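Issue 218. Parser rejects a valid record. Input:
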Amino acid sequence: MVPSLLDSIEIILVEPHEEGNIGSVCRAMKTMGLHSLTIIKEHEYNIDRIKTLSVHAFDIWEKREERKSLEEALLSSSFSVAATRRKGKLRKLSTYSPEDLAKKAGEVAPSRISIVFGREADGLRDDEVNLCSSVVTIPTSEEFPSLNLAQAVQIIAYELYKNALPYKTDRVSVDKERIKKAVEDISSYLSGIGYYKWGEEEKWTRILLSDFIERASLTEGELKRFEKIFSKREKIEKYKDIEK
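Output the parser choked on:
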């Protein structure tokens, strides 16, 4: 029997181009007990080509979800991870290895976990990486570091399957939509006490808060307590002004 942790995992492909890669991803997923596939659609696909490469995993494609944007696809996710090997000042400061990601997934499940893979030619853009709270990077040789899309999915899916164990928990982490609302409220509280001092400080603080809350896998009760720290600080500042 496949451990139920795997039912929490969603693989998202952002604008895949090659039908052969899509079919191979379906096969890679099913061999490791993963069944949830979401496509950020680029164009109409040759279904026969997908069917040929997926072999006995074509049902993964048939049950797929399609979304217009990555942002829309991640709204119901509680933990989102961008698969990328590129680094830069506009990307995340730290990354998970596939093994560490599998362990983290065990902590977050049964809440929805989204692992995002980019285009075959140029991967994920900076803005797409920043929609996710975390990054996973597969170690590869510097001589030829680029992995095929289906190969990357297979490696990460294998680590998830290997680490999957039966579990029982009542813990449910908040989803992306709830996190977005919390970040808006906290940012408003910070603005109310004059925290932001330079041009893009609010933007980067929002990204930091969003990433922190998602990686912490907070429950609704924990998030409310976290929000209260900021709302209480704003009230204290207002009372100070009144007393003066």
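Fixed in the parser; the record now loads. The longest strand covers residues 9-14.
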